[in-house]
């Protein structure tokens, strides 16, 4: 599947002349008239060596004269003070000058890195930035992570009018000096006195300046990772960068693994280990990730997007191959988004990619012990057949037999059943909800004979062809946020205008569609499975996972629905339910 966005030209601004002013004349002159100076990346000055100019794809000498101490002193005198991390800058510019010192502390080498403000560089992920979710950028040095952060800060502050605070440890995002560079727009910048204090400034920014978005460059220590999690838990959107080229690098990095939820070793029961076909001791994700979205910046115009970090990490821990999005920009400024099941990152290439299986986000409790089988879970839209154009093509021409549709009047004069065309929704979920709630709905693969369309909100947003076809046939489109039973149940009930009283009272679907959070839904689902698969058929008591008082009350109500007895025992925060057989 490939989606093309409208062409958009990137605008690049720099202050290269200000950087050239600090150089000795014999180095400055060759660069002033160089035909490729717009692609210049770095100028390297090492004592006793020839000066080098590093461009995008090659390196060349600027002079046959060797660098002397006077040359280095000439440059150092014209830049700002070097901080504890041996970095300095030129005021009101984005250039960075890094020093190499000898054992006595004298500067013997300089790396002058050209800083450019590139407007339009985040077109590939603009809708993700505007979604409000936290985004983590990964990539090798020089691929453009800091440039992207700078543009993200400007878009969020100026175009979306959000309160943005940049934690600028080395003055690399907003430039040197007390006045930040105009490239960050209305975003505010907090400077960090020493790199080891970055985590303290991160917390200070949240507590003192009420930001809606925090921008962080180079999260590299455990304290900074913990500070990032604290900020995310306070409801602040995070956009940051971290060391590592790919998401797998963070899984293997014990210092930064907390950014993607943390990794823990779990011992499985015998039945669960056999069901998974794995060893009894496996690695699993410990908590929800700090960043919901991860972007691997392979090249300046070639990025890989993991839209659901939690699921991607779960796949990788199970040895499965995730299918992320590949986003690219061509020379005309057009953005293409592809998702190919055969696509994989360089660290995941194999001749026979394994078949994907769905992985629960939180494999805990009885489900993780292998004592019960969960409801059939529809495959995640990222991990199944994702060629939506082909999906539609296979459905448009599956005409139904003549006379197959039968209509009967409903209680309010409606024509039942309703013929529903599902688009990217798990059929097992739909069949389950329709069967349990006894809804007058029939699934159809013929778009021409459908009465309505049910689709994921993200697919409706990105696939205008579906919207156009529905509009031509005057079909209403009902969109849902996620491919889960509560969302599907609510949508189907709204389609047939059912009230709560019409739902069967023998199952917990009524309760599931009433609660809002995933934790509550998971707790009720755990209780239902325990009753139906262990307590009633086997006559054995079951203990559930520790839950809050509010959730335990919901579980008690559900147990009473089955006319069984349950007690709460234990001390907070480990207080939990025990369900007894009849």
UniProtKB/TrEMBL annotation:
Where does the source fall among the domains of life? Bacteria
- What UniProt keywords are attached to this protein's entry? ATP-binding, Nucleotide-binding
Show the Gene3D superfamilies listed in the entry: P-loop containing nucleotide triphosphate hydrolases, R3H-like domain
R3H domain segment(s): 518-582
- Give the matching InterPro entries: AAA+_ATPase, P-loop_NTPase, PTPase_dom, R3H_AAA, R3H_dom, R3H_dom_sf, Spore_III_AA_AAA+_ATPase
GO terms for molecular function, please?
ATP binding; nucleic acid binding
State the PROSITE patterns in the record: R3H
Which residue ranges are recorded for the region named Disordered?
Answer: 331-361
- Entry annotated with the keyword Cytoplasm: no
User: From start to end residue, where is composition biased (Polar residues)?
Assistant: 339-354
Name of the protein this chain belongs to:
Single-stranded nucleic acid binding R3H domain-containing protein
Source organism per UniProt = Cyanobacterium aponinum (strain PCC 10605)
What is the phylogenetic placement of the source species in the record? Bacteria, Bacillati, Cyanobacteriota, Cyanophyceae, Oscillatoriophycideae
